[in-house]
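lol ok so funny story. i was supposed to be doing the assay writeup but got distracted and ended up predicting the structure for this chain instead. priorities right. anyway since i did it might as well share w the group, maybe its usefull for someone
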Amino acid sequence: MRVLRARVEAGSAERLELVQALQAWAASARSEAGSVDVRVCEDLEEPGVYCLTSRWRDSQRLEAHLAGPAFGMLLGALENLARRTHLELAAGAEGAEDAAAVIRRLRGSGTIGRR
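and the output, tada:
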């Protein structure tokens, strides 16, 4: 099982548009082969902070998602609408790793959200 997690911070002016992009990504990711569970939650103690979690059957399915169009659209939304984004990949007891290098390898280049 592989897990993609993200913490996304939005400014008040961008919240509605960002929420729409997060919902679109979640709906698309849920329909992909290998998707086990996809969640988007807002932090009740920090409005405008969103936590994304998607669980995938294996690395190949997650990597296909990361290289695909739905994730590309999410990256574009994060780049334009988020104040800060932190992405990480986890695999059971193996711990977590910063997802930026994996995403750059799969997608070619570019920045991965603002820090």
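The helical segments are 15-30, 59-67, 69-81, 100-107. The chain is about 40% helix and 30% strand.
back to the writeup now i swear
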